[in-house]
Amino acid sequence: MNQEIAGRAGRVRESANATTYTISDLAKEFDITTRAIRYYEDQGLISPARRGSRRIYSRRDRVRLSLILRGKRLGFSLQETRELFDLYDNAPGEQAQMSHFMELLGARRAMLERQMEDIRAILDEIGAAEKEALRSIAARAPHPKAATSPSA
Amino acid sequence: MNQEIAGRAGRVRESANATTYTISDLAKEFDITTRAIRYYEDQGLISPARRGSRRIYSRRDRVRLSLILRGKRLGFSLQETRELFDLYDNAPGEQAQMSHFMELLGARRAMLERQMEDIRAILDEIGAAEKEALRSIAARAPHPKAATSPSA
DNA sequence: AGTTCCGCTAACGTAAACGTCAACGAACGT
DNA sequence: ACGTTCGTTGACGTTTACGTTAGCGGAACT
To answer: What CATH architecture is A1-74?
Structure first.
């Protein structure tokens, strides 16, 4: 996974030293399929150069890809991420977009906080169940009362 | 949203005081559609009693529903939640299941941590972008260098 | 009695994000 | 020269979690 070494794929092509990647270079690096990468292109998230029919990815494309994946991990849909890209491309650093973006981010943060709270609640219940189990074992009682079902 | 008052739906039916709910009671309380609730039943997650063809939900069913929703918020699929229910129903408090459950929970925790890290990274970049913007404004320079695209 | 809800089943539709062939061309190693 | 590998464009298939009619039967209000 070290993009400095690499077999001898498409590094330093053409004139100066424009670092480029093939589709499978990126697929391996990010551990996704080439199909996924082409799909992101279909959805307008990346637009790699072409050498004939083959796709040539630049460092910029590579950054975009990492941003797409980060967006996915945060629960953004591909369309949401695309909109953010579009906004930024058409006027980087504008305030209206910034606030739109902050809204999305805030919503995600709220989701994460709720998830954390859910996990905390589960852990609490597990803790209570354990204590209950220990107590019933200590008292040599076969079963406590059997609640409804912990889990999830 | 107070389930103690309620119009005069299906509270205290039958013999003693077995609190029950109609499907729309629960739909309103949890803010989901009745279709969703029936779907959970199709998938084997709940099995409400019937009075004729109509579904009668007990407090146990209501707890299950809340667990299903919590599972969803944590990213568990309905099938995963169902498996957890099945495991617990067939032998509550067994250790093998507990470890299976803890595995799932651990995976979710890892996901959450990664998401938190992603958000931290984004906030860092936003902070850096702001500093850069302020600096370029202070120097009356039109644009910095224009990176690749922050967002997502 | 009539009409309006509520609920039920059955079945088809949907959206997102790819997976999975198929059929083909170009490039690369031997 | 040739087989293998890599890449390309369709195009259809898949999964999850419901949404959306459609058509019908009781139940409840007036």
So the answer is: Orthogonal Bundle (1.10)
Cα–Cα distance measured from residue A137 to residue A142, given in angstroms and rounded to the nearest whole number: 7
Q: Which residue of A has its CA nearest to B88?
A: A149
- Residue A32 and residue A26: Cα distance in Å, rounded? 8
Q: Where are the alpha helices (DSSP H) in chain A?
A: 23-30, 34-42, 59-73, 78-90, 95-138
Region A72-84 average pLDDT: 89
Give the tens place of pLDDT for each residue, A7-53: 334 444 444 567 899 999 999 999 999 999 999 999 999 999 999 99
What is the pLDDT at residue B100? 74
A50 CB and strand C closer than 7 A: no
Strand C contact with B66 (CB < 7 A) = no
> Which CATH number does B1-70 carry?
1.10.1660.10
Q: Where are the alpha helices (DSSP H) in B57-94?
A: 59-73, 78-90
Question: Three-state SS for B99?
Answer: helix
CA pseudo-torsion sign A88, A93, A98, A104:
positive
pLDDT at B50 exceeding the cut of 60? yes
- Measured in angstroms, what separates residue B37's CA from nucleotide C22's C1'? 42
Residue in A64, A68, A87 nearest the CB of B148:
A64
Q: How far is the C-alpha of A20 from the C-alpha of A41, rounded, in Å?
A: 17
Among partner residues B84, B119, B151, which is closest to A151 by beta-carbon distance?
B84
Cα(A123)–Cα(A125) distance, integer angstroms: 5
For A120-142, how does the pLDDT look when each residue is reduced to its tens digit (9 = 90+)?
777 777 677 666 656 666 665 55
